[in-house]
What does this fold into?
Amino acid sequence: MTRIAIDAMGGDFAPSEIVKGAVWAASDYKVPIELVGQIDKIQEVLDEIAKKGITSNRGGYFIKNIKVDLSKLDIKLTQADEVIEMGEAPGVAIRKKKKSSIVLAVDAVAKGSSDAVVAAGSTGAAMASSLFGLGRIKGVERPAIAATLPTKKDPVILIDAGANSSSTPEMLKQFALMGAMFAKNVYNRETPKVGVLNIGEEEEKGNQLVKDTYKLLKENAEGFAFVGNIEGKELFQGDVDVVVCEGFVGNVALKTIEGCSMMLFKLIQQEFKTDLVSKIVGLLAKPFMKRIYKRINYEEFGGALLLGVKGITVISHGRSSSYAIKNAVRVAKEAVESGVNKKIAELVS
Amino acid sequence: MTRIAIDAMGGDFAPSEIVKGAVWAASDYKVPIELVGQIDKIQEVLDEIAKKGITSNRGGYFIKNIKVDLSKLDIKLTQADEVIEMGEAPGVAIRKKKKSSIVLAVDAVAKGSSDAVVAAGSTGAAMASSLFGLGRIKGVERPAIAATLPTKKDPVILIDAGANSSSTPEMLKQFALMGAMFAKNVYNRETPKVGVLNIGEEEEKGNQLVKDTYKLLKENAEGFAFVGNIEGKELFQGDVDVVVCEGFVGNVALKTIEGCSMMLFKLIQQEFKTDLVSKIVGLLAKPFMKRIYKRINYEEFGGALLLGVKGITVISHGRSSSYAIKNAVRVAKEAVESGVNKKIAELVS
It folds into this structure.
């Protein structure tokens, strides 16, 4: 049975929110978990859950007293003495802190005691330890981060969302392929539609990288349908399954979307606080706003997948609440069970 | 007195919305204008305005019967036999169509009959004709597009928003300087705060271009304060005046923001249409939503400025309504009167 290893010490609200989310997932999805971190601190959170259930007001949702029977859950605890902090240089940190929670969580997958990792700490450390600890799938030049974004219709996969700061057309071609396998096997998109993120629709638009990538994908669309260039504003139409780009551009786009959505909800909140009438209308509108927030909140998607390594690593937002971690565990479980890595290995080699 | 030349034939809703916006601006801001295009078609719109006033339901605002006294406005008409269409390759088109509305509108500035151009047609054609017709300011390596974006506080300037698909650190340094002069002289920001759009806050983050740009700006912040790297999500905090990036990245960010905002407003609209209760709440919430829409709608900013050429070119959105054009004329007028080009010339040389 699929077991998910979780870096219990990674993230702004670790270990509390991480442990709560992990337990919640174990209970909801009947998935065995392995919590990696300082056991005494993890145990404190478990004791709180045993007494009061899961309560959290992080991440925009208010969760109250969700009862779980810990004795019926398959939860393994693995001691990790060290923690890699957000500011540390990833490459140095994973070599220096061999007993850190992220390194040992990845190690659990490498050794086979778990099948996937969920990590909400330093993205760089999660990538470096996965690359180092799990190794690349044979034939994959560079792993890439596949992020799931909300659209007007079904979500779209943006790859690479920041694993590599620069790329070649050949790398982007592999990202397209890995993203397509993810869309097909995890999101059940039959013959995924793949586009290139560009600044115009025409073939001759953009910088040299995207022009060359366009040509490569046009001639080598194996396992997916190439639909050409996709502009930033079309990302949200939901007419395409996978959008390929360089990590730098993808990460800027991802964070811009996050910032833009947050600003809009902030402006809406402010607008509904100007006087008594606005407060009343705001109260009436609240359930509707909540539904929209739920649809676009990154916490619903749990985290982004690092594709191309021999194992599944789900990279969650640093500000992940228990709800985000619960969803991240679900994503990890689905990715393992879909066999997406096997499909990538077959197609790449 | 400042006269603004307007490409009356450029844009999805030309000439109707363009002429209406131009007349509206002439009336509201007491600014002389020069409409460049097919005079018979322009005259038709003017006749309609004379009879019924300005009416428009484009661009999210419903405008009805705004009365203007055409006889009191300073409106010059200049015949242009040709129009450059959206799909045409800009470089070829401006050489082939020497009597096109955009080429002749730029020509009006080059000859001195007008002081600035407003263009809502092909961005490439507007850039190419400006570069060719007006020439670069001495010392400026490459012109750049400065777009104004909404934030939680005051707007921020994103430069380059798409004039160049690739750049060097030296070019980005000049963009920083031009953006800062724009922020200072047009938006009255004393000692503008300038940041580099990046995927992390730390100096060593990002690709080689942004790393080198960081170093250059740190050592050469003349006329502005360098505040380091700015992540996509921080764009909307309003804590910085100018954000510098490569044109490809800037254009992706700009269009992503547009798409993301449009999706959110679409989702809100849908949510307020599900049943009778939602429709009633939606009606009550409408005035509040309108205020937020007004705050983030790109039409409020009128258009982006092409900085670095000897003249002012305002590049408006292809879907510009009369309201957007009216604001674009205001931006053009303010830019001319601020003497931003003179300041750029002084600092660059």
